[in-house]
Design a protein that fits this description.
alpha/beta, Leucine-rich repeat, LRR (right-handed beta-alpha superhelix), 26-stranded mixed beta sheet, 9-stranded parallel beta sheet, 14% helix, binds 2-acetamido-2-deoxy-beta-D-glucopyranose, LRR_N_plant-typ, leucine-rich repeat, Leu-rich_rpt_typical-subtyp, cell membrane, LRR_dom_sf
Length: 815
């Protein structure tokens, strides 16, 4: 839960930046040219300001360092005075620019002495004082034109006293902690141009917003997160305020957006944000399709359905339309070719069907082309990608993940010379990958039917993410991909590549290299030496051979190492235990010989509870764009490849199917977070470490098909999470340990002790003779269920990351 809280804080910071930018863009002209910093301040006003400073208990960024008694207060940080009279007109200490709120304390009533003050901005500071209520004297500051208290955690009901400030033009109470009803008295503030009552962190509501119609100079209204569930006529109310340019009513539980206006007054409307209101009626019956001045239209998460009306094609001012996450019940066949201002179109998870050929043909075709982003994820789209894509020269982003688009990637894509982000994964694309534009940063086409060789000059200097896994691509990987020196994520897995990996020694940022399930050959890639940024390396299911280099221990950030199903041979380098971050080591089904390195207890990555969850760590090094895709991709890969636990939370060692000899080192039992330990099908001898029961997290333990001898340690009974155990075909002797978990496992898998001729005792048939029945320690079965939360915690944090990414994406999309 605290993870979600952290998300909100991040959201809060991001929001504060964007809101602040908007606010500031509008603030500057609010005060006239009567500001003159060369004027000298009046002594009683300086005293009032010093008293204000006294109310500050912590000035964490030294914002008020210049506020010294001997100085002219008109030159202090945040102050501006009138050139004629020297009166302080402006006090601006908004803390939004710093990461931490700079000021703590309370707002001193001394400010009342600044009786010419027009502009007061204390936003984003902890100035709510000990009791958190808004200071009453504010209601008497009659000359205020601009008041910003946003992000100050004031509580109590939304203060009525503000409705006395009849000169107010700008009022921002967003992200405070007021609650309750929005006072209709706000309608007295007839000079208001800007009103922000959004996101007060608590229940706020209004059952009648007709007071808005008195604000006949209002240009900006934001009541996001104020519950307006009973206000059916809200379009008529806003229509009474013809000056409105920005209407933001996100998450207001608005009942409907149906047409209820006879004559449209809103001739200046530029922005309409209705995100997260679940209307559930036809798109076409919305009231705003006639408003041809709208530039920004946000209708994501509104559950609108049915066809878009043709009026959309006449909204010639439209720049951004977000219609994502609307339950796949809409259709878009409107011709958009006249929307010359259109820059982005987001339709993810909203259409019931579509044809990419037609959609691309209907995109704007004006000479002044501005269209840069098309996103249509999971929309059941069919059709073939038309080569006319090369007309979209301004396109930077095209996201069509998870549709049924077929045909080849058109060669014309090469001419989209601004293209940076291409996401075509999970479609039915076929044919060869053509030459791509040099501008690309992300190219993601996994899970298609692409085939043939990669073009010889495949690559782009700015590639950061290249994901072409799960296709049928053949031949060698061209050396040209090595020119991408910023590559962070390279996924070639599950194709039919052959030959050696190209020698890309200059990819200093490479973090993920996935090449599994191909026909790659050659030695362990020598060029990876010194790649200390590498986090994830998967070369499994190929034909790599030779010994593992001892410099493998220098890959200091390596978390996941999958080398299974190759033809590696020789000793496991002892340096592998230098990989302190290592979480999974898989060398299964190679020809490794020698013994298991002793210093396994150095693998602290397998002993600690993962410092801060796990998945976020693994991906935190990636940009938002990358992590958004990777998250989806990784989820899919997990299921396809890494099993239900996925790579996110897997911890363990798999050395099965090799030629390892010697004993199992006792140190292995210190890997207390390992979920999986598989040493089967080797030639290990000696005893099973006595202390094996301290591998508390183990869920799967396979030591079968070795030459292990001696008794089965009693501590096996401590492995309370174990769900798979195989000790078969060894030379184990004596009494089998008991315990509820072990008995259950035996019932499910009676072969788990097979091939050990000298085992005895229940549940086996064979009775123990007196001399092989050692004293039976009492079982300790007091583990509580809460401990098993580790795995779910991992999953949960993964979800939180996903949510966080989505929230961020929403925000960035809009700014
Ligand atoms: C500022 O005030 C000084 C002296 O009061 C005056 O000379 C100057 O012109 C003023 N500047 C502006 C921009 O008003
Ligand atoms: C002041 O705030 C800073 C930043 O939040 C904090 O590190 C510091 O401990 C605070 N000092 C006092 C005296 O509260
Ligand atoms: C809150 O504290 C201020 C002084 O900091 C005081 O004037 C006001 O009366 C207090 N309000 C309540 C409700 O206690
Ligand atoms: C939220 O509002 C309730 C009253 O509806 C109030 O009791 C509570 O203190 C408020 N919470 C905060 C954090 O302000
Ligand atoms: C508003 O101002 C009037 C007179 O100026 C005063 O009587 C009243 O108390 C004020 N109301 C609030 C809520 O401050
Ligand atoms: C939004 O409103 C809900 C109550 O309806 C409240 O619990 C939540 O804190 C508010 N969120 C923000 C960010 O203000
Ligand atoms: C248009 O706005 C004017 C001015 O606020 C108002 O009087 C009129 O009723 C509005 N028209 C409609 C149809 O709401
Ligand atoms: C809005 O468009 C509809 C058709 O969708 C039309 O009937 C109506 O007259 C238009 N209203 C205005 C005010 O332009
Ligand atoms: C996808 O489109 C096909 C027809 O093209 C339709 O039969 C199917 O129901 C659609 N799937 C969804 C989820 O809308
Ligand atoms: C998509 O549209 C094109 C052009 O209208 C048409 O030729 C093609 O048959 C359509 N494809 C599908 C699958 O409907
Ligand atoms: C790119 O555009 C040029 C000039 O319009 C054209 O000659 C060329 O064939 C195009 N390339 C592709 C791959 O379509
Ligand atoms: C099994 O272990 C016993 C001693 O415990 C030893 O005498 C015997 O040779 C071992 N058998 C094999 C096949 O290793």
């Amino acid at each position: 839960m605290h993870r979600l809280a952290a998300c909100w804080i991040l959201l809060h910071i991001a929001a504060s930046c964007s809101f602040f930018l908007i606010a500031h863009a509008r603030k500057q002209p609010a005060l006239g040219s009567d500001l003159n910093v060369t004027a000298r301040c009046l002594p009683h006003e300086r005293e009032a300001l010093l008293a204000f400073k006294n109310g500050i208990t912590n000035d964490s960024t030294n914002l008020l360092a210049s506020w010294r008694p001997a100085q002219d207060c008109c030159r202090w940080t945040g102050i501006a005075c009138s050139s004629q009279t020297g009166h302080v007109l402006k006090l601006d200490l908004n803390g939004a620019y710093s990461f931490y709120p700079p000021l703590y304390g309370q707002i001193s009533p001394s400010l009342l002495s600044l009786d010419h003050l027009e502009y007061l901005d204390l936003g984003s500071n902890f100035l709510e004082g000990p009791n958190g209520s808004v200071p009453e004297f504010l209601g008497s500051m009659k000359n205020l034109r601009h008041l910003d208290l946003s992000y100050i955690p004031f509580s109590g009901t939304v203060p009525l006293l503000l409705s006395n400030l009849s000169k107010l033009e700008y009022l921002d109470l967003s992200f405070t902690s007021f609650f309750g009803r929005m006072p209709p008295q706000l309608g007295n503030l007839s000079k208001l141009q800007y009103l922000d009552l959004s996101w007060m962190w608590n229940d706020t509501y209004s059952t009648d917003i007709s007071w808005l119609s008195h604000l006949n100079m209002l240009e900006y209204i934001d009541m996001s997160n104020v519950t307006l569930s009973t206000i059916v006529n809200w379009p008529s109310v806003v229509n009474m305020v013809p000056t409105l340019k920005h209407i933001k009513l996100m998450n207001c539980s608005l009942p409907s957006a149906n047409r209820s206006i006879s004559h449209l007054n809103l001739t200046e409307l530029e922005e309409l944000d209705l995100t997260w209101n679940y209307f559930g009626h036809p798109i076409a019956s919305c009231w705003f399709w006639n408003v041809t001045t709208i530039k920004l239209l946000y209708l994501d998460h509104t559950n609108l359905y049915g066809p878009f009306p043709d009026d959309l094609g006449e909204m010639v001012s439209l720049q951004h339309l977000d219609f994502s996450y609307n339950r796949n019940a809409a259709t878009l066949t409107v011709d958009l070719k006249n929307l010359c201002e259109l820059e982005s179109l987001y339709l993810d998870n909203s259409l019931s069907s579509g044809n990419i050929t037609e959609l691309v043909q209907k995109l704007p075709q004006c000479s002044s082309r501005k269209f840069y982003a098309l996103s249509s994820v999971s929309n059941n789209m069919t059709g073939i990608f038309p080569n006319t894509i090369d007309h979209l020269t301004s396109l930077t982003t095209i996201i069509l993940t998870n549709n049924s688009i077929s045909g080849a990637i058109p060669p014309g894509i090469r001419n989209c010379t601004n293209l940076e982000y291409v996401h075509f994964s999970s479609n039915q694309l076929s044919g060869q990958i053509p030459l791509l534009p040099r501008s690309l940063r992300v190219f993601e086409v996994s899970m298609n039917f692409l085939s043939g060789h990669l073009p010889l000059e495949f690559g782009a200097p700015n590639f950061e993410t290249l994901i072409i896994s799960f296709n049928y691509i053949t031949g060698q990987v061209p050396r040209s991909i090595c020119e991408s020196q910023n590559m962070a994520f390279l996924d070639l897995s599950n194709n039919i590549f052959e030959g050696e990996l190209p020698y890309c020694s200059r990819m200093p940022s490479l973090r993920f290299l996935l090449a599994s399930n191909n026909n790659f050959s050659g030695k362990f890639p020598p060029w990876l030496q010194g790649f200390s940024s590498l986090v994830f390396l998967d070369l499994s299911w190929n034909k790599f051979y030779g010994s593992l280099p001892s410099w493998i221990g220098d890959l200091a950030n390596l978390r996941i190492l999958y080398l299974s199903r190759n033809m590696f041979y020789g000793d496991i380098p002892a340096s592998i235990t230098d990989l302190r971050a290592l979480q999974y080591l898989d060398l299964a089904a190679n020809n490794m010989s020698g013994s298991i390195p002793r210093s396994l207890s150095n693998l602290v990555g397998m002993t600690l509870k993962h410092p801060s969850g796990s998945s976020d760590d693994l991906y935190s090094t990636l940009s938002f764009d990358e992590s958004q895709d990777l998250f989806a991709l990784v989820m899919k890969h997990q299921v396809l490849k890494y099993g239900s636990h996925g790579i996110v939370s897997v911890v363990g060692i798999d050395l099965s199917l090799n030629q390892l000899t010697g004993e199992i080192p006792d140190e292995i039992t210190s890997l207390s977070m390992a979920l999986n330990l598989n040493l089967s099908w080797n030639h290990l001898s000696g005893k099973i470490p006595e202390n094996i029961g301290s591998m508390k997290s183990v869920e799967s333990l396979d030591l079968s098909r070795n030459n292990l001898s001696g008794e089965i340690p009693r501590s096996f009974s401590d492995l309370t999470y174990i769900s798979y155990l195989d000790l078969s075909y060894n030379n184990l002797t004596g009494m089998v340990p008991s315990g509820r978990q072990l008995d259950t496992l035996y019932t499910e898998n009676p072969s788990m002790y097979y091939g050990n001729n000298d085992l005895c005792g229940p549940p086996l048939q064979r009775n123990c003779s007196v001399n092989n029945a050692p004293g039976h320690r009492n079982q300790q079965e007091s583990k509580t269920d809460s401990d098993s939360a580790f795995f779910y915690y991992g999953l949960g944090s993964g979800l939180a990351v996903g949510l966080w990414v989505v929230l961020f994406a929403l925000l960035f999309k809009k700014t």
